[in-house]
Design brief:
Length: 146
């Protein structure tokens, strides 16, 4: 009986030691350290994929308002434009793989700077809400279980 206790204690210690070594080796893999440094080096980008003067004016006003909102460069967003002949230009602002803002630009270009600043505020608030939701997200509970 004592032999089995001693054997089980030794096996338990061996398993715990191997788990600790495995965890430290996983944390130090080159791929993870490169990803962390890449996130630190490249951040705060506002990528423009605009094609018209109205889209460029929207991007300029959005980027200047965005620099005021996110001076540390923590978040990267992309602005893309889809010009249409019938409705004018449609602008999309994406963060990661999520579309946060979608709007049509008016033909009067003097109204576009206010729209860009307003969109920057909306996107910044949406990103902060998304970050808070990720912080409190529980993978054990599904969306329908809340």
């Amino acid at each position: 009986m004592n032999y089995f206790r001693l054997l089980s204690v030794l096996v338990l210690q061996l398993v715990l030691a191997s788990i600790g070594l495995a965890q430290s080796s996983v944390d130090q893999t080159p791929a993870l350290t490169q990803k962390r440094t890449l996130d630190q080096d490249v951040g705060g980008l506002v990528v423009a994929q605009t094609m018209t003067l109205a889209g460029r004016a929207f991007y300029d006003s959005f980027a200047s308002a965005w620099n005021d909102k996110d001076p540390d460069g923590r978040f990267s967003v992309s602005i893309s434009e889809r010009p249409t002949a019938r409705l004018g230009s449609q602008v999309f602002v994406d963060y990661g793989h999520r579309r946060l803002v979608q709007m049509f630009l008016p033909p009067n270009r003097s109204l576009i700077p206010a729209l860009g600043a307003n969109a920057a505020e909306q996107v910044y608030q949406a990103i902060l809400e998304y970050q808070v939701a990720q912080f409190f997200d529980d993978p054990d509970i599904g969306r329908d279980e809340l």
